[in-house]
């Protein structure tokens, strides 16, 4: 069974631009969560989607948004990029919502660099 | 959000058991205790999780204190491939949100 895939793996953008990252969960998994990882803040929860609905959101500004499609694939968008948005963006999938009670499977991440 | 406290780093010798401690004194009744590990340049990998009882799987064992305010991840025989950052996390059963701390960097010496 294929794991969680994220595209692209690496991305370089300029301040002020916007970016869209994609995540394909494990087949059959309907819940997708996004995390941001930086050396200073560690891993921080961005949002969680299940059945195309956002179930939970972390403490990030409105520039960070996401969505989930009917095939469970998810995208996250960051508008008006800032230097501080440079990070590894990780996607995790789980079989059911409430992944806090079960295991989540993480993708390799998208490394975003903002210059 | 309930938080966890872990030592910043630990060392172990290869093929010896490793006990990684975690304190979570503000855990609520619906919080599950998760352990994930992250190898360099990879996403976190699920290790084990539990609610109240001790748990075993092919990777590790999880020992949970009776009052649930602390837990210990046990790697029975450390290998060089176990060198990673280990995160102890509390996850609510109602949400997929995991709150990661700084984790423990485990070094395994041959």
List the helices and strands and how they pair.
The complex is a heterodimer of chains A (115) and B (110).
Chain A: E1 5-7, E2 10-13, E3 19-24, E4 31-38, E5 42-50, E6 53-57, E7 64-68, E8 74-78, E9 87-94, E10 105-106, E11 110-114
Parallel strand pairs in A: 2-11
Antiparallel strand pairs in A: 1-3, 3-8, 4-5, 4-9, 5-6, 7-8, 9-10, 9-11
Chain B: E1 9-13, E2 18-23, E3 31-38, E4 45-50, E5 55-56, E6 61-64, E7 70-75, E8 84-92, E9 98-99, E10 104-109
Parallel strand pairs in B: 1-10
Antiparallel strand pairs in B: 2-7, 3-4, 3-8, 5-6, 6-7, 8-9, 8-10
Low-confidence runs of chain A (pLDDT<50, min 5 residues)?
none
**Main beta sheet strand tally, sense and closure of chain A:** 7 strands, mixed
Tell me which oligomeric state these chains represent. heterodimer
Q: State the end-to-end distance of chain B.
A: 39 Å
| Proportion of helical residues of chain B | under 10%
State mean pLDDT of chain B (0 to 100 scale): 91
Radius of gyration of chain A: 13 Å
Give an account of the 3D structure.
The complex is a heterodimer of chains A (115) and B (110). Chain A is mostly beta strands. Chain A is 0% helix and 52% strand. In chain A, a hairpin with a 2-residue loop joins strand 5 and strand 6. Chain A is globular. Chain A starts with a strand and ends with a strand. The mean pLDDT of chain A is 93. By secondary structure, chain B is mainly beta. Chain B contains no helices and 10 strands. In chain B, the strands form 2 sheets. In chain B, strands 1, 3, 4, 8, 9 and 10 form a 6-stranded mixed beta sheet that branches. Chain B starts with 8 loop residues before the first strand and ends with a strand. The mean pLDDT of chain B is 91. Classes of the chains: A mainly beta (115), B mainly beta (110).
């Amino acid at each position: 069974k294929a794991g969680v895939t994220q595209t692209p793996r690496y991305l370089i953008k300029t301040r002020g631009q916007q970016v869209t990252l994609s995540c394909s969960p494990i087949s059959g998994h309907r819940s997708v969560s996004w995390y941001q990882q930086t050396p200073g803040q560690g891993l921080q929860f961005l949002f969680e989607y299940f059945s195309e609905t956002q179930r939970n959101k972390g403490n990030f500004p409105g520039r960070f948004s996401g969505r989930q499609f009917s095939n469970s694939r998810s995208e996250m968008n960051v508008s008006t990029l800032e230097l501080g948005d440079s990070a590894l963006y990780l996607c995790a999938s789980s079989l059911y919502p409430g992944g806090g009670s079960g295991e989540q499977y993480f993708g390799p991440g998208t490394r975003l660099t903002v210059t | 959000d309930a938080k966890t406290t872990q030592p910043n780093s630990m060392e172990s010798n290869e093929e010896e058991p490793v006990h990684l401690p975690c304190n979570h004194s503000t855990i609520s009744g619906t919080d599950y205790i998760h352990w994930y590990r992250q190898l360099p340049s990879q996403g976190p990998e699920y290790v084990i999780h539990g609610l109240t009882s001790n748990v075993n799987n092919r990777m590790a064992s999880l020992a949970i204190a009776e009052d649930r305010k602390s837990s210990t991840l046990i790697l029975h025989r450390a290998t060089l491939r176990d060198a990673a950052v280990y995160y102890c996390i509390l996850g609510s059963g109602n949400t997929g949100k995991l709150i990661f701390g700084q984790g423990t960097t485990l070094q395994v010496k041959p």
